[in-house]
Specification:
- By secondary structure, this protein is α+β, with helices and mostly antiparallel strands.
- It folds into two domains: 77 residues; 238 residues, 2-Layer Sandwich (BirA Bifunctional Protein, domain 2), CATH 3.30.930.10.
- A seven-stranded mixed β-sheet has the order 1-5-6-10-9-8-7, sandwiched between helices.
- Helices cover 37% and strands 20% of the residues.
- The protein binds 3,4-dihydroxyphenylalanine.
- 3,4-dihydroxyphenylalanine binds next to strand 9 and strand 10.
Length: 345
């Protein structure tokens, strides 16, 4: 009777081919728990008479070892109790995990594009500090003290100090001053960076944004050079055939000064919401560097002349990608950012 059972269960165990941790657990519950097959057979063995005991004892011990070994091997392959199979090293049939590619921020993409265009014209990249003193942000750039021109840009002050307040820079024009103070002409540089203004945050304004400043100072630099350089820039950035126009304007650090418009990138000049029906959109401020600025930086304004320009990267980006709300740039919403995954890096 007992011998029969040992034989039958031995056969069952040899044929046991688990495919999951759940199979391993069923095996344990059937054979190895305190009311399981192995224990029951040992119970039954107690009633066996002397002669049979010797033979069956050996068979029973072998059976017990078989059950335990089978359980250990199955556990090593699938784990115990857990419903999910354990990963086996090097199993090429398991599905791959894949990985997610990140994307560049649209402002970084556009800044890079702007920088590349000017680099090809021989401009180098320069940078300056975001915490600036009054001299570099205002005074050297020909903003007289108490002059209303200072109100053009609402400033975050860090420290008020007699004659030279410390503030977050309101524009990248401060880097022009640092560059010219440090070296000798000719200068041909573009200066990308973050700037700060004390503005309420809305779809159309933010308390920080990004600019690219441009400066070219040498002997005999003329307004024609300025126009040609910016015209070329616009053709490269927005495509051949984009029109430009210059409107007279005012900046303390340039004379004459202008604002440059381009034919609307959306409607191509026909008139749409973006250009408010005019067919034109403003993209930057520019002008001939005021001789006072050159002199403030220790440059002989009789010998040298130059042009400068400054543009907001957010504005350029909005026109390229039709982004209508400035806040999207700093909210880090992946639904917005991942739309730029396919853009060239
Ligand atoms: N700094 C000006 C601004 O933030 C932009 C600007 C205008 C820069 C004319 C220039 C320039 O270099 O020539 O609004």
């Amino acid at each position: 009777m007992l011998q029969e059972k040992i034989k039958q269960y031995t056969q069952e165990i040899t044929q046991f081919k688990p495919t999951s941790a759940a199979d391993v657990e069923s095996f344990r519950l059937k054979f190895l728990v305190s009311k399981g097959v192995v224990k029951n057979l040992f119970e039954a063995f107690k009633t066996v008479s002397g002669e049979e005991k010797r033979v069956l004892g050996k068979a029973l011990n072998e059976f017990k070892q078989l059950a335990e070994r089978t359980f250990q091997e199955a556990t090593a392959a699938f784990g115990k109790g857990d419903a999910t199979p354990q990963r086996r090293e090097g199993d090429l049939t398991l599905p791959g995990e894949g990985f997610q590619l990140g994307s560049r921020h649209p402002l970084s993409l556009v800044r890079k594009e702007i920088v590349e265009i000017f680099k090809k014209l021989g401009f180098v990249v320069a940078e300056g500090p975001e915490i600036e003193d009054d001299w570099h942000n205002f005074s050297a750039l020909n903003f007289p003290p108490e002059h209303p021109a200072r109100d053009m840009q609402d400033t975050f002050f860090i420290k008020k100090q007699e004659g030279n307040d410390i503030a977050l820079r309101t524009h990248t024009s401060s880097v022009q001053v640092r560059l010219m103070e440090m070296g000798k002409p000719p200068f041909r540089a573009i200066m990308p960076g973050r700037v700060y203004r004390n503005e309420a945050i809305s779809a159309r304004a933010h308390c920080f944004f990004h600019q690219v400043e441009g400066l070219y100072v040498d002997e005999n630099v003329s307004f024609a050079d300025l126009k040609q350089t910016l015209f070329h820039f616009v053709q490269e950035l927005y495509g051949e055939g984009t029109k430009v126009r210059f409107r007279p304007s005012y900046f303390p650090f340039t004379e004459p000064s202008a604002e440059m418009d381009i034919s609307c990138t959306i409607c191509k000049g026909v008139g749409c919401n973006l250009c408010k029906g005019s067919g034109w959109v403003e993209i930057l401020g520019c002008g001939m560097v005021d001789p006072n600025v050159l002199e403030n930086c220790g440059i002989d304004s009789k010998k040298y002349s130059g042009f400068a320009f400054g543009m907001g990267i957010e504005r350029i980006t909005n026109l390229k990608y039709e982004i209508k709300d400035l806040r999207l740039f700093s909210e880090n919403d992946v639904r917005f950012l991942s739309q730029f995954e396919s853009e060239v890096i």
